[in-house]
Hints:
heterodimer; A: alpha+beta; Ubiquitin-like (UB roll); DNA polymerase, domain 1; 2 domains; five-stranded mixed sheet; 5 helices; B: Aldehyde Oxidoreductase, domain 4; Aldehyde Oxidoreductase, domain 3; Aldehyde Oxidoreductase, domain 4; seven-stranded mixed sheet
Amino acid sequence: xxxxxxxxxxxxxxxxxxxMSLSQYLREVLDLTxxxxxxxxxxxxxxxxxxxxxxxxxxxxLAVQADGCEITTxxxxxxxTQMHPIQAAFKEHHGLQCGFCTPGMVMTAADILKNNSNPTxxxxxxxxxxxxxxxTGYHNIVKSIQHAAEHIKG
Amino acid sequence: xxxxxxxxxxxxxxxxxxxxxxxxxxxxKLPKMTQAAFARSPYAHxxxxxxxxxxxxxxxxxxxxxxxxxxxxxxxxxxxxxVNFKNGETMREPVHPLLxxxxxxxxxxxxxxxxxxxxxxxxxxxxxxxxxxxELPAVTDPKKAMAQGAPIVHDExxxxxxxxxxxxxxxxxxxxxxxxxxxxTELEFNNQRLAxxxxxxxxxxxxxxxxxxxxxxxxxxxxxxxxxxLLCAFVLGIPEHKVRVVSYDVGGGFGSKIYHYTEEALLxxxxxxxxxxxxxxxxxxxxxxxxxxxxxxxxxxxxxFDKEGKIVAHLTDEYCALGAYLSTFAPxxxxxxxxxxxxxxxxxxxxxxxVTAPFTHTVPVDAYRGAGRPEATYLLERMLSKAAMEMNxxxxxxxxxxFIPPFDGIEQPGYQTQVALQYDSxxxxxxxxxxxxxxxxxxxxxxxxxxxxxxxxxxxxxxxYIEGCGIAPSxxxxxxxxRAGLYEVGHVRVQPTGKISxxxxxxxxxxxxxxxxxQFVADKLGIDMDDVEIVHGDTEQVAFGMGTYxxxxxxxxxxxxxxxxx
Lengths: 154, 566
């Protein structure tokens, strides 16, 4: 099947197998390996990207379902060497350890802050329910997102 | 004090992780790379009646299918630690085959590997492998495994015991002291088996270079040099200089990525057979089924106290399951990494721990997060908490009563425990006092009582912890049964421009070595941190090493780097 979509601002058309997940498409076809597959069953959130602005677990939708959509992956967050404020906040507040869950955390954080520019700690924790960090760094992840919110608000 | 040690320095590795530019094994693609999938047993214990791979072999895109009937069937992965029976009998050590031949001994054990042009095609073909099993009764409970008539894991050892072991004082002496004690607290519980679940599933790529007759193995491992050693010298019989093990970014390990796994050896073997690179990345189900599990102790414990609440003796019997085969460090976990912590921070005069370690029909059980030591601490603290309740004592008071008195290791000598270790210094009452002050313990207890009257439940838990960290040096671990030295390599190279490359045999999978090691190297040399590069995770660049686990990176690996600078 043909799929045409925009990823990080760039348009792509590919002939792919209908069973290919969006996460596999991003990793294997576009070589965007920043989107990680931790469980392939929508449990862990490492593969989170945004589809038309909403956070989506890319392992659980087919690439063909994203036909015509605009996707942003972790690779599309920074502006050249300039990190996105969420990324900068994670670095500043030690919001990561092994880094494997991190792209999903950042993309979910973007979704949380898009809908709520001033989230409470509880709202952030609720928003992160679908993302696992096995290094158990949730405390600093929450702190990072709080600081990112402040920074974005200016 | 230099410019960096003790300062809040931002992690240097974070930028690449935050931009999605980390290099985890599954991110690597090689030219002509194939993909592997496994046919795995749906039973914990079964006889393999027949395996038919003809359908899989004919399937679209299949490059090769192997079973234990192929040459890989003669190999097994080794255990790296030997603990013999109390009576001197040698530890029983089954062959841990790369693929099961006649018998399945745990759920998820692989019977065939299917290599194809893509992951989807490999998985499609794996579903076409037809295996006829005769299901057999299985035993997964450590205590039941040692009972009369339990299902047998390895036919040659009908009692299922891998070894038994004890540490501490004479059992009869401990029993007599318990007999004479004013109060005896008893506790029986299971420290249950668990699946470690690093967020990055295990992933390997084996790449055989036919012209150089050499291999590169990309592996999500915590210790690339040990994998190379075991893979080469103990499994495939390849000279070590012909294999390069590369472990770039690794998404957490928690112990589960220390060990040499069957898939690593099998892929390395298969890559030469097919003359192409082959990748396998576990899916989450395979991670649950095949990553070495942790804990699995059945514990029965007695602790005796005098009238004042001082411990007079401690006796524990445990059944500690090892799973179907002996994983790399498995025998060390319920023994030397467990029993040696039974003193804790308490002046218990008499201690005896007896461990029976059976085979069970589960995936191998090995180190997980702290490995043997949290299990010991959990037991000691549960016992003290229960005893305090039974004797109507305050939870802090019973601990103060039993602490080893402060010793600084200079004026007062080190403290010799009843369980082999000698502590160098300690001030346990000072630490707990400080903790209680920070909480405002006495006020908290009053607040708690008041709250309870109003139907509200407030609680405080007290636990102490002491741990043997930084597994080394080699002579000691050798005496305890380690089959390899646990030395570490730190190599500091001054480049012609004056910049520094540091080569370490430890491995970072979230710990931040690239930052921490650079901090103290820069301070030692009086240079800028940006002028220090940390190289790890590549057996071709780093001379040798024993990897990262058991809190050894800084204490052992860091010391090696400092010695190299000195």
